[in-house]
Amino acid sequence: MQLIKLDATPSTNQYLKQLVLKNLVDDYTVVTTENQTHGRGQMGASWISETGKNLTFSMLIFFENLNASHHVYLNCAVSLALYDTLKDLSVPDLKVKWPNDIMSGNQKLCGILIENILQGNRINKSIIGIGLNVNQVNFGQLQNVSSLQLLLGIPMDLDKILISLINSLKNRLKILSTPKINSLKKQYEQVLFRKNKVSTFASKTETLFTGIIKGLSDDGKLIVYTEDGVLQEFALKEVRLLY
Predict the structure, then answer these.
(1) pTM here?
(2) Separation of first and last alpha carbons in the chain
């Protein structure tokens, strides 16, 4: 494994992507930085992190035979790897908010951005970007956000957590090439945020409705039992979970 540490970069995902284009990196290469100036989350959302306080890194992984339709299992594997590491640290009330935010109670700890490089109908490589709030204690006007230090009451060693996360990612990602791949979605659903609870959602037209999260479809959509008694599937840009 190659570990590249940067003082600052606009985006570790973008930095790693440029190295991939130049064929300068191997499997499981990790790029980490103390200051990510233009971090991105799902749907173009920004990820703001105080310099030197948190973990912002990206990992490259090669796949030999992963069908593009299995992207849902890849997302589950990465989310569960983060869950595993934080559970080992005794972070309370851990859940995964669809598609891949890691929550403690109602507070967000971690965001994930997965960018796949396709070759035909196969995922050839994936760049997995992770932003984990570790030692930041002031989030300004941001609501429902927390960090490991705020939750556990002590400052944490960034390097130790990084190594733990890398090992967890390797362990979970290996399952993608085994017959146990189907188990990833089941385990993900077991820790899904607000599953089987009445929740409020906003549609893509900002119409509010209530429903109950039931799980994931085979292609990674969110299955919701809506207030009118219908099971509906929603893609990422089609619905937002409000509370």
Answers:
(1) 0.94
(2) 40
